[in-house]
Structures are given as C-alpha cells and as structure tokens.
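Priority: low. Protein: YIP1 family protein. Input follows.
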Amino acid sequence: MDLTLATVAALLRSTLTAPRETAARLLALDPPDDARWLGFVIVVVLSVLVGQASILVLGESAFGGSLIFMAVFQTMVLLGLVVAVQGIGRLAGGSGTFPDTLLLLAWLQFVMIAVQIVQILVLLLVPPLFGFVTMASLAIFMWLLVNFTMALHGFTSALKVTVGIVFAFFGLAVVLAIVLAILGLGPQGV
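Result:
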C-alpha cells in the first residue's frame, strides 16, 4: 500500500464519506498480522502524543501527565474495544476475526486522532465552536464504529448495530467502573 500523504488523506476522506466501503477496502488489503499490530502500536503512540498536545492546550491532565500511564491506558482502552467489537459481534452472529478487528479499529483510531487535531486547532483559533466540534467528533466516532462493525461482521442493520454498541458501551462502562474502584482509581472524595 502506498502511504504517501495524498493517499492517506484520500483514505481519510473516503472513510468519512463511505466508511463501510473503505472498511471493506482496508480488509481486502489483508496485511500480515505484524503490520496490523504495528499499526495498533503506532496509533497508540500518536494518541499519547496528541493527548499530550491537548493537555498543553487545556493545561490539565487526568493522568498526572505520565506518558507511560497514558500509553498503558490508551493501549488497554483500544485493545478492550477491539476485543469487545470482535467478541460481541461474533456472539451476535457476525463473522469478523480478531486480526480484521484490530486493523479496522487501529484505522478508526487514526481517523479519530485526525479529528482530535482539528479539535485542538478549533480550540486555539475559534474557541466558541469547540463544543460543537466535540459533539461532531462523537457523532463521527459512532458513525464510523457502526459502519466498520457492519463491514467487519457482515451485519446489514445499522439500527441494530447502533443499539448493540450503545448497550455494550453501558455494560463495559459498568465493568470498567468496578475495576477502577477495585484498583482504587475512582473519583477522589467528595
């Protein structure tokens, strides 16, 4: 695959305008597992770097500014999402594999990094629009996740996939809250 800036920009555009078709195109590339894992690691590193840039702009950090903690947290969240999308999709009758899920969600994270960069620029240049851009980024994430899940697992109903994702997020949030509470990482005293 040609990884020039123009090719990556075109792939970003097609992801936003035709996500299911772009996901199918990415899956058709069928890169080796090593390349999929490398892509995963690259997006984790980029996420941490862009996260640090956000912290510099906003002036605060929920993680105390530790790059190692941010990298571990980002890895766990993204890997957890890969496992959830693959596992829950398979339970619902889907046909997606773990390597394909890893590929698509690494690409999804890359797209969201680009969106986060736009958010930072908007915050710096046009702060009143930041809330709108943040809401739009959440909508973009859901739009892409639904379409990528449909392409991955061969599902045909966007509504069913959306409902499944919403319920899965609530379930995973409860599990994560319990785990964080057990680890003593919950919100500090009121």
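Residues 3 and 9 are 10 Å apart (CA to CA). DSSP finds seven helices and no strands in the chain.
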